[in-house]
Write a structure and sequence with these properties.
The structure is a single chain. The chain is α/β, with parallel strands linked by helices. Helix 6 runs parallel beside helix 8. The strands form four sheets. It has an eight-stranded mixed sheet, sandwiched between helices. A four-stranded antiparallel sheet has the order 11-12-13-14, with helices on one face. Strand 12 and strand 13 form a beta hairpin. The relative contact order is 0.17. The longest helix has 26 residues. The chain has 16 helices and 16 strands.
């Protein structure tokens, strides 16, 4: 993988002296709970000024902790964003540029099928230091269609119950995530623990509870469903906070709430073919809170997300930090510092230890931030392929650096005033910085991170020209898959084909295993192709 992390991963296979040092005085080590929402925009909190959403539990978390207003994830979609939070490294270093999909679609994107299990992770570092670790909720560091993917235990988790894991991983109930978390907290209240609670809200498909739908019955249909979904997510946060209090550990627990990328805003026109209520894209009306762009964009609306931190006795209560430039790759070194765990000497992360910011101190970032994106590429907000932030300045640019925009984020959070012409020297410096970083990224997929079946290896791809039709079929699948669950139902297929002939028989021909639905692989690579 070129400049990959493999050369220093050997240290993770041993139990070095830093573990023994960190194991001292376990009663003083804080528990850590990382709540990671999905497609939850910066503006999707009542505390951030949303006009009709209500998030009382998140507002409580902000009152009891600090609301960081300049927090960024490192990709505008889920899988790479999550990889960065787990490893403390830019996801492109692992060849992860978009979300993990079927092996065929990953191949077309020159991506692996899962995050390298040898990668450094915050869970593994804390586990080796004596923490009990667990992951509940969404995984998506692989995809449900991949075979041979490592289970969460391979990344340092003692316990897990996840959805969107590999094909061999049993899928957990979406709504069981906070209950699983509460049981884990109670069972481990007498020892330090690290807990990921990765929520489904507010990602498609929308499956709000009846209670939340009833709560918002006075709103129009579109707002009602989205408000119900946000309420379900906020209630999940409340159940986790209540579990910490019931277990008697809330005063010694560091709690973080954030989101993997900016909001989805697909609800522009109901139309005659809108899917069943609660499942279709019509209901995605997330808010970026005035930031430019949304999910899939490298502008702030796609990568600046909520970041609330409560750590009693350390993080100031009721505070807003609008100056600390905090990113997802900073989580690993910062959380390890909070736990008193020294990083292995061979660890080479991309983040910074910002523990001082969690303690309410003023922190100035010393390292630039880089983003790479290979997905949607349209105007006005999705065209950038690269971005870099250094100090107050953020540059977005095309892969060749010929098109740029420069914004001073401290005075223009909405990125509405392009200063590129006024500051050509800064543009030149940041362009060189971004292109030089991009040149260090791997261009070949690590073969150990490829599903053993249902996919050609990159080295064989040129020997089978017939497979070139795959990406077009993959695009068609994405168009038909209106609820974005990576499975086509007959109704989705019929609706998307708009009355073409013999549709039901064609659907059956694709359905290789006869289960009444089409996986991405069944559709992208039909029988005999």
């Amino acid at each position: 993988m070129g400049n990959s992390p493999v050369k220093y991963l050997i240290a993770l296979l041993l139990v070095p002296l830093w573990v023994l040092a960190a194991a001292a005085a376990p009663s003083k080590r804080p528990n850590i709970v990382f709540i990671f929402a999905d497609d939850w925009g910066w503006g999707d909190l009542s505390g951030h000024g949303h006009p009709w959403l209500q998030t009382p539990h998140l507002d409580r978390l902000a009152r009891e902790g600090t609301d960081f207003h300049q927090f960024n994830v490192l990709n505008p979609v889920c899988s790479p964003s999550r990889a960065a939070a787990m490893t403390g490294m830019f996801p492109s270093r692992f060849g992860i540029h978009q979300h993990f999909a079927s092996p065929a679609l990953n191949l077309s994107r020159n991506m692996p099928d899962w995050l390298d299990a040898r990668a450094p992770t915050v869970a593994r570092f804390l586990q080796k230091a004596g923490y009990r670790t667990a992951h509940f909720g969404k995984w998506h560091l692989t995809n449900r269609d991949t075979r041979g993917a490592p289970a969460p235990t391979a990344y340092g988790f003692d316990e897990f119950a996840v959805f969107n894991g590999g094909a061999e991983t049993v899928s957990a109930d979406l709504h069981a995530t906070p209950e699983n978390a509460a049981k884990f907290i109670q069972a481990n209240k007498d020892r330090p623990f690290f807990l990921n609670v990765w929520l489904h809200e507010s990602h498609l498909p929308h499956r709000p509870t009846k209670a939340s739908l009833d709560k918002w019955a006075h709103l129009d249909e579109q707002k009602r469903v989205y408000a119900a979904v946000i309420t379900d997510g906020d209630n999940a946060v409340g159940r986790v906070l209540d579990a910490l209090k019931t277990a008697g550990v809330e005063q010694n627990t560091l709690v973080i709430f954030s989101s993997d990328n900016g909001p989805e805003t697909t609800g522009t026109d109901k139309g005659p073919n809108t899917p069943e209520r609660g499942y279709g894209g019509y209901y995605s009306v997330g808010s970026s809170g005035g930031l430019r762009g949304e999910k899939r964009s490298l502008f702030e609306g796609g990568v600046r997300v909520p970041f609330l931190v409560r750590w009693p006795g350390h993080t100031p209560a009721g505070a807003i930090d609008n100056t600390t430039v905090f990113t997802a790759v900073d989580l690993l070194p910062t959380l390890c510092a909070a736990a008193g765990v020294s990083l292995p000497p061979d660890y080479r992360g991309d983040g910074e230890n910002l523990i001082a910011a969690l303690n309410g101190q003023s922190v100035s970032r010393t390292r630039p931030i880089f983003w790479a994106w290979t997905g949607k590429a349209t105007d006005p907000d999705w065209w950038p392929r690269l971005a870099v932030r250094d100090g107050d300045w953020k540059l977005t640019l095309t892969a060749d650096g010929k098109r740029t925009e420069l914004h001073r984020l401290t005075s223009d959070r909405a990125e509405s005033n392009d200063l590129a012409k006024a500051h050509p020297d800064i543009v030149a410096r940041l362009t060189q910085l971004a292109l030089a970083w991009h040149a260090t990224l791997p261009t070949k997929v690590d073969p150990s991170c490829i599903s053993p079946i249902d996919r050609q290896t990159p080295s064989n791809a040129t020997k089978a020209p017939a497979k070139k039709a795959g990406p077009d079929r993959a695009a068609a699948f994405d168009r038909l898959d209106t609820n974005r669950d990576s499975v086509l139902t007959l109704q989705e297929y019929l609706t998307g084909q708009k009355g073409a002939a013999n549709l039901e028989q064609r659907f059956k021909n694709f359905d290789k295993n006869g289960d009444g639905k089409l996986s991405r692989d069944e559709f992208v690579t039909p029988s005999g192709k």
